[in-house]
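Researcher: We're teaching a course module on how sequence relates to structure. For the next exercise, students receive a sequence and then see the predicted structure as tokens, so they can try to spot secondary structure elements on their own. Here is the exercise chain.
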Amino acid sequence: MKLRALPVLAGAAVLALGLAACSGSAEATGSGAEETSSASGFAVDENTLVFGVVPDSVDTETNYQPLMDYIAEISGKTVEYHESTDYAALIEAAVAGKVDVASFSGFTYVTATNNGATLTPISSIVTEEGQEPGYFSQAIVPADSDIESIEDFAGKKVCFVDPSSTSGYLFPSYNLLEAGIDPTADITPVFAGKHDVSVQKVGEGVECEVGFAEDSEVEKSDAVKVIDETMVPGAPLVYSSTLPDDVSQALIDGLAEITIDDIIAAGIDSADTDSFRSVFYATKPVDDAYYDLIRDICEETEAEQCQG
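Model: And here is the predicted structure for the students to work with:
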């Protein structure tokens, strides 16, 4: 079974409309300010770097603030926080050249570049010493459930995160197909929007009987248990390939392989907290080829969101 017959899901529809709007805007004549910004290679202006993220949890901005402060330090620019409403909106912003630096999921990165975004991956964040880039997409059920395998998800209301989420949709869809379950015809898909919300809904067992989310959010809850998991490529920190060479090099030098101690040593006192240490230990370099596994799974599933 393939995902070729996927109906146009809400998130995918938003993405398609957004990308069509971007295409139309690119052909239209923009304002002088927009043309100047585009010509300079910056999303806004030469004094600003726009940092784009998807709000995966309620703590997203707080978690990223020390990293944004560090990017401001190494680049000499003001860093502006850009929180997209969902994955499709961040992809749209990247395609339109409205972000300079971003934290993407692997699937979002592949989808964005397939649709024309000019992005270069720098590194992936790891949260513990000795860890390599990568994290787990986990299949979860209520803590008191007797469900023991993904095969038992057939006929259930299944929580995904977002149609463009790596660990919250692409890998789960692939795993469902491997288990003989069509992720649209054999289940009732529910899109929670965020990983923590997916965990919450599965734990409540009302809107979703089972579901998927990334491990960092699952481990915070005692209302669910993990019945399966798959390692996925680490989420990349990326920069816009249109940035001037000196700015690009500063980002590469500063973000490719650093530790939390390096960030603190750079004068970012906000990094020296338990909350930041829980989400950041170091970065490890990654390149475009690192995400070929995601491209392979896109090919296997023929997921609509993979297409350019």
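Model: If you want an answer key for the exercise: Residues 1-37 have pLDDT under 50 and may be disordered. The two ends are 22 Å apart (CA to CA).
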